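May I ask for whichever protein you like with its backbone structure tokens?
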Amino acid sequence: MDFRLLGPVSAFSEDIQVPLGPPKRRAVLALLVLAEGTPVSAERIAEALWDTEPPTHARTIVYGHVSALRGLLSTEPAAKLATEGGGYTLHAPPESADVWRFRTLVRRASDGPAAEESAALLREALGLWRGQALGGAGDTPLMAAAADRLTEERLAALEQFAAALRACGQGAQALALLRPAAERHPLRESLIAAAVRSLHDADRQAEALDLYHRTQRLLAQELGVDPGAALSEAYLAILHARPVERPAAGRSASEGNTAAPSEAPALRPNTPDAAPPPCLLPRAPAGFVGRTEDLDRLTETVRSGSPPLSVVTGPGGVGKTSLAVHWAYAHAGEFPDGILYADLHAMDPDGTGPQPAGVLHDFLQALGVAEERLPADARAAEHLYRSLLTGRRALVLLDNARDSAQVRPLLPGTPGCTVLVTSRNRLEGLVATDCARLLPLERLAPEDGVRVLRTVIGDLRVAAEPTAAEELAALCDGLPLALRLAAARLAARPRLALRAMADDLVDEHQRLSLLSGEDLGVAATLRLSVQQLPPAGAQLFRQLALHVGSELDGAAAAALSGLSPAGTRTALDELAAAHLVEEWTGDRYLMHDLTRLYARSCADGADPAGLHRLLVHYLAAGQAAAAAAEPGSQPCAALPPGVSPPGAPPVFTNRAESMAWYVTERANLTAAVAAAADAGHPDLAWRIAVHLWPLIVRQVHDGWEPTLERALAAATSLGDPDAESRLCSLLGWVLTENGQHTAALEHLSRAPDLAVRAKDPRGQVIALINWAAALERVGDLSGAGTRREQAARMAHALGHPHTETLALYHLAAHCLSAGRPDEALAHGLRALDIAPDQMSDERRVLLLDTCGAALQRLGREGEARRCFAEAAALAGPVGPGGGPAAEHEGGSAGGHVRALAG
């Protein structure tokens, strides 16, 4: 397992990204990694997760995140999340964390090696950084402080790196990292000093002096101080330095002072009449903001590539062209022999674009070849093009490439030239044959999205409605095109409030139409991407209009599309290559909101049978997950008569795997219940819902009521007493646990009779147990006791150990509350005696805890301590709460087990 904190918090297993889930779970993982094998208490984790007083159920939430992480790590033999020392400890090889590797490299560089070795070590250390430390893990004070400490370590290493390069006579090489860091930390004098010295080493004295004077003014305005010793010494060094010698005209670079390869003189005529080097760039993008880290990565990618061939890839509207052109203008001085640019028009509506031969003729003319000397033969044009660029330092920017074949004829044959390609496709062919370096361009961060709005509508309107501005940025999916279209709409309507615009965009039915302009729009951009898809990808994209959520895996995609597993993998690869879905892990994909809305707008072309196949797939998968979560329990419901799954359901080898699947698929499963009800499949709606019970009992306070109410309505519409009984029982218990006792009793009082009508005695037992729990909450202890005794008698008659242990536990708990510890102990011991081998540890903990409490009240302290110790060994630190009965006889206490003390 590879844990990465120096950027967005992430984890990789054999180069496949692990789906960590929400920000709070990422924060928990970050804390455990930073602790380097020492325990982290639940209180410390709670402090990191909330910037205000943690909620009363904070420990339950913490345990849920720890449990989910434990499930994700369960297949990694070298990584284990243990409960010890009053907290949680991540046991993993130290080198599995990028933070450890970074610190080790910096420490080795500080131990006194030669300057060249020190620079190499620090270059490797800084290369581990992928953005803001602890990204995506929340910004609570504790997490922000941890991120600031890591940032401080990076800046110190960067300054050390610059010093090592200067000692090697290569100070200019540090500029790519120093300049953006200096912009983000304009008052850090040691950093500014390093940047000033590196600018001087690059023979850019004017920029060095400008940076010094800007910092001098800023220090005076913000802090009222003058520059300190480090910055002042850097300034004086520039003033007293001798001019840098350059090779005289006609001398080779090998004579006298030898320039680095990136500073070699241009091989072009050095006469007053020589034509200026070509620059075919389009105009610079107006209002370009943010993307600092992407620009830095592009610079690093270009300079480290051999050959220097880079592909900026990303979805339509993400700003690939703007980034490439902005970078080209910023680095134009590095290409003294010119910049060649061609828009390959891969996304023209008719699917055509300029042929390589035509682009070559344009390039040859720009390089000074007269019209009458242009070769008619395409191969001859390629040879002449590469000959003219031999020995030159030029940039070739190929925009909107469709595929690798379109690019290859336009590649120079000399390593001195840099090639930058933009494409909606990943152009993996160029990677394989030409060693291209891919630079995936992500969507804009929220703060940069707001900056885009500022550039169009001004600071005052954004400052007046900051929350609405953030919501607008989120609704535009971080796509610069969508953001600029939204901003253009606001600019044309100066009286339109940002809040009103955000509220309009919330309506999914009109979002795409609002994000369109006079001659462009998000829908048009996506349409062009879809038009270029191969057949399998096009078929799957049409079916994605029917998907119930925004994420899916290969099995769900196969169910939707009706393709074979191999065909589905091909289709997903095609969609991912076109950035119409985003690959999160090896078999999980995300469709961003605007893409999802566009797919739904094309629903007329989808095969409606795909939705039914998808719903059946989720039902079959839910059955498999429930069986693994509570082995030995009776299935909640079978597939409807005559229905079979579209493919083999997933296989879960243990409870942890099944619970991790539930957490990952929760949004899809709850959406599937609503989609089934809306599409006229009530028999699927209620069945999918009841198979959610293993997750519901562990996350009972997590807003399940709307989903269960939809499922109950579907069951009622069928007139199926078995379905109604199960839903009434489960929904009633959820309402009880959330304090809605009146509504709970309304459902629970119906459940036993419905189970009788359905001829389901086990369901009647569960209904009685849950009804008793609700009666107990409203103070009717006598009614609760009567129903629990009845449930225990019925369960014994059934001869089903799972059902009887559950009923005996609840009866024992009632006797304990009623002041009858001897009866409670007898029921608890009986339940432990008949418990099946596969009974969950959670249920066993509850029974041991109840027996221990009964023994304490009977004065048998030694026996009580042994019960508590055995329970504690099984439970570990877990959340508070009582144990519910689930919707069928195999219900468990789930995560609602009290923390036990020996």
Remarks:
- The domain at 533-607 is CATH 1.10.10.10 (Arc Repressor Mutant, subunit A).
